[in-house]
Write a structure and sequence with these properties.
mainly alpha, 0% strand, 294 residues
Length: 294
């Protein structure tokens, strides 16, 4: 990441803010009285539509881009008032934005045969935006100071943020991050998920593969290569087939949904407060973008 992008990312506390109080951790899951699964979870994940309860309190990639874009427009106005030019970041096409939770439970079956466990290459509009961020790292020092101040959080960046939301504090995403991590860890220990993982493991063993779960398979250091190898693709295909035959994703998603709902109940006040702040940032960003587009 370039210096300018690092500064802007650090300053965009909307996405990185952390507040000290810890959240309630998820404990060992007891067996549910009725083991309901989500029959459409596997199919929906294929379409990028796997949603979990805590998603309502986080920020999607599209929302992140919206805040960045609005802030960038206000920065350009500030820089122009100083007699300086400022090239705004190219927009990311809606169809190029990755859906949430795509690899939460391991490899994406639709991508296994082609990419193995490697991520899909960035689409063109995402690549263009990344290149524009990198180009900012080569801006003259005087331009960078005007844009970010000497601290990296001042200058026109600070002005733009104040014009966007005034003194509104950035959302507290620490609550979301901690809880969603706790929910995933706890769901792996849920009895029905452990049963499904044992079945998945037995399925993989028939293909001569030995991994404790799909996350371990996806994270194997064997795949730290420039691109997917034939062995990686074969492993990923077997992994995806075993996930499908065991309905692992449906079972796992149902267990985590139950756990996340309980965590939301226990941490509702903090999550609702964070969501309200996030919504104010987003509403302000959309007002700026709508004015610019008309």
């Amino acid at each position: 990441m370039s210096l300018s992008r690092a500064r802007a990312a650090a300053a965009l506390a909307l996405l990185l803010a952390t507040i000290a109080p810890a959240c309630t951790a998820a404990e060992e899951e007891p067996a549910p009285a009725h083991r309901t699964t989500a029959p459409l979870a596997y199919a929906n994940r294929q379409k990028g539509q796997l949603r979990l309860p805590l998603d309502a309190y986080g920020s999607t990639a599209a929302e992140t881009y919206a805040v960045e874009d609005a802030q960038d427009l206000l920065m350009r106005r500030c820089m122009n008032q100083l007699g300086l030019e400022w090239q705004t970041l190219p927009r990311v096409a809606p169809g190029d934005i990755a859906p949430p939770n795509l690899r939460r439970y391991g490899v994406v079956p639709a991508e296994a045969a082609r990419y193995g466990y490697h991520p899909r290459p960035d689409p063109p509009s995402v690549t263009r935006r990344d290149h524009a961020w990198d180009a900012r790292g080569a801006l003259p020092a005087a331009i960078q100071r005007a844009a970010y101040g000497t601290s990296g959080t001042g200058g026109c960046l600070k002005t733009a943020q104040h014009q966007l939301v005034g003194d509104t504090a950035p959302p507290d995403y620490d609550a979301f991050n901690r809880l969603t991590e706790a929910a995933l860890k706890s769901s792996r220990r849920a009895p029905e998920v452990r049963d499904a993982l044992r079945t998945w493991h037995a399925c993989m063993a028939k293909a001569g593969l030995d991994y404790p779960d799909p996350l371990a398979a996806a994270g194997s250091p064997r795949w730290n290569t420039a691109g997917p190898t034939p062995t990686e693709r074969r492993t990923a295909r077997a992994d995806a087939a075993c996930q499908q035959s065991t309905k692992l994703v449906a079972v796992w998603a149902a267990a985590e949904t139950r756990i996340q709902r309980r965590l939301i109940q226990r941490n509702g006040v903090r999550l609702r407060t964070a969501k309200a702040r996030r919504d104010r940032w987003l509403a302000a960003a959309h007002r700026v973008l709508n004015r610019a587009d008309h």
